[in-house]
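Troubleshooting: if your tokenizer reports a length mismatch, compare your output against this known-good record of 78 residues.
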Amino acid sequence: MVDDDGNTVTWLVVTALKDTEAWPVSYVSGSCPDANNVARIMADDAGSFDCAHDFPTVNSKVGEPGISFASCSEIANE
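Known-good structure output:
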């Protein structure tokens, strides 16, 4: 993905870890103002993320990353 200025977009991915499982909680675009701080705030809230029902959030000025979003329960049913 390329932003409005022609720069390649980078992403910070906040991931929750529990026991032997890991899942993405939030995607923060590197072009987002104060991206590292936004990712830290999202990481602080990662403990309340319910993998069975919640979907990752996206903080971006350039749209969503080019991936499909699904809850863990949807993935398990595939």
